[in-house]
Specification:
single chain, mainly beta, five-stranded parallel β-sheet, two-stranded parallel ribbon, 7 strands, 0% helix, globular
Length: 110
């Protein structure tokens, strides 16, 4: 993926991804949208450098129970629907100052 510097949309839906290694998308400097729904992702950490254009992150239907919004200042849409969240920590969404849409439905939040 490192040579796809003009890529602005990446769809990795419906795979069997479990872990995304840190800085996996660092070279995708034009990325605006990333779709990772219907995988088995349990860990998402240090995925992104600060990308001003990055606006949409779809992580629905995975196995996440924690999330960090670090480096996601420009994100407009975040979908964490149908994961394994039980608690939404205040620090989890701290950096999402431009967020317009957040979906935390179908989790076990209490």
């Amino acid at each position: 993926l490192e040579y796809l510097i003009n890529l602005n949309k990446l769809n990795l839906d419906d795979n069997k991804i479990i872990i995304i290694r840190p800085k996996s998308f660092d070279k995708l400097i034009s990325l605006k949208e990333l779709y990772l729904k219907n995988n088995k992702i349990v860990i998402v950490c240090e995925l992104f450098p600060v990308i001003e254009n990055f606006q949409r992150l779809i992580l629905s239907n995975n196995r996440l129970n924690n999330f960090s919004s670090e480096h996601l200042d420009f994100l407009i849409e975040l979908n964490l629907n149908n994961n394994d969240f039980e608690i939404v920590e205040s620090t989890m969404l701290t950096n999402l100052i431009n967020l317009n849409y957040l979906n935390l439905g179908e989790n076990q939040i209490y």
